[in-house]
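Researcher: I've got a protein sequence and the SMILES for S-adenosylmethionine. Could you write out the 3D structure of the bound complex as C-alpha cells? I'd like something to compare against our soaking experiments later this week.
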Amino acid sequence: MAIDDSKLQAFMGNFVRDLGAVMHAATIVVGDQLGLYKVLAEGPPMSAETLAQRTDTDSRYVREWLAAQAASGYVEYDATSDRFSLSPEQAFALAEEGSPAFVPGAFQIASAQFKAIPKMVRAFRTGLGLGWHEHDTALFHGTERFFRPGYAANLVSSWLPALDGIDARLQRGARVADVGCGHGASTLIMAKAYPASRFSGFDYHAPSIDVARASAEREGLADRVTFDVAPAKSFPGRDYDLVAVFDCLHDMGDPVGAAAHVRQSLRDDGCWMIVEPFAHDRLQDNLNPVGRVFYSASTMICTPASRAQEVGACLGAQAGEARVREVVERGGFRQFRRAAETPFNLVYEARP
Ligand SMILES: C[S@@+](CC[C@H](N)C(=O)[O-])C[C@H]1O[C@@H](n2cnc3c(N)ncnc32)[C@H](O)[C@@H]1O
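Model: Sure. Here is the predicted complex with S-adenosylmethionine in place.
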C-alpha cells in the first residue's frame, strides 16, 4: 500500500497534539485536587518551592507539574525569574470554580472513562450495558462541575425565557420537576432564580441524590427544593408546570417510556424542556471537535448506560433533533420545537 508522506506527517502531527492532551489530562486532575491552580491564581508569580510550600506538597513533584502545565499553555513561565503564574484567562478556566469557562470537571469525566476501559472491553464483546451507577465517582462529580457552568451561564438568562410563558409562570410560582437531575446543579440554579416556585429533583442514582440533598441544605433551599430517588418512567407528582431533563434523555434505556410518563405528569398547559448535547442529525455533520468529545463520551458512558436499562434504546449523545422529536412524539406530545442552542447544547420545548 502506497503511503502518502505528507498525509502521514499530518496524521502524526495530530497524534502528537492528541497524545500531549491525553497525557496532560491526568496532571490537570491532580493539580485540581491538590488546589495547585487555585493557589497559583492567588499570585504573585511564584517558584515551584513556594507553590509546594503553600499547598503542603512535594516541591520536586510540583516543579515537574509546573513544567507540564507550561508546556501545555496552562501556566505562564518567566524564565528570567524562574517563576510561574496564571494569566487572568487561565485562572478563570482552571481556578475559578463555577466560572462559565471552568474546565477541570471535564478532565474528571475523562479520568472516569479511562477507569471504565476493562468494563467496556467486556461490554463490547457481550453487548451488555454499563450503568451510569457502575462508573467511578469521578464521573458524577466531574459531570456536576463541568455542566454547572453552562447551566449557570444559560439556563436562567436564555433557555427558560425561550420557552413560551415559562419565565413568567416561574416568577409567579410554579411546580417544577428536574428528572435525571444528578447532583442537582440545574435544579438549584433554577430554585435560586425563582423563589416563588417549588422544585423536585429526581434521579435513579441514590448517591447522586444524597449529594443533591446536601447541596440544597447547604444553600438554604431545602424548604422548597426536594430530591428523591426515582426513575424517569415513574417519578411521583402530577400537574407540574414544567418538567426538565438536562443531558440525560439519551442516557435512558426507554426514552419513549420516560416521555409518556412526563406527558401524564404535566398539566395540560405544561411544558417539557429537553436539554441535549448539541448535534446535527447526520453523522457526517458531527465530525468536528465538539462531536468528537460527545461521540467519545457516548461510546464509553451514554450508549452503554442506556443499554443497561430496559428497552436499551441507545439514542447516543449525538442523537440529533429528528430522533429526539420522534421520541417526544411517540411519548404523546403534539408540539415540539428547538427553542435555543449553544455550541454544546440544544434546548427543545415540547407541549402536550
Ligand atoms: C449526564 S448525567 C446528567 C445529570 C444532570 N442532569 C446534569 O445535567 O448535571 C445523566 C443522569 O441521568 C441519570 N439517569 C439515567 N437514566 C435514568 C433514568 N432512567 N431515570 C432517572 N435518571 C436517570 C443518571 O443517573 C445521571 O445522573
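Model: The two ends are 58 Å apart (CA to CA). The chain has a mean pLDDT of 97.
Researcher: Great, I'll pass this along to the crystallography team.
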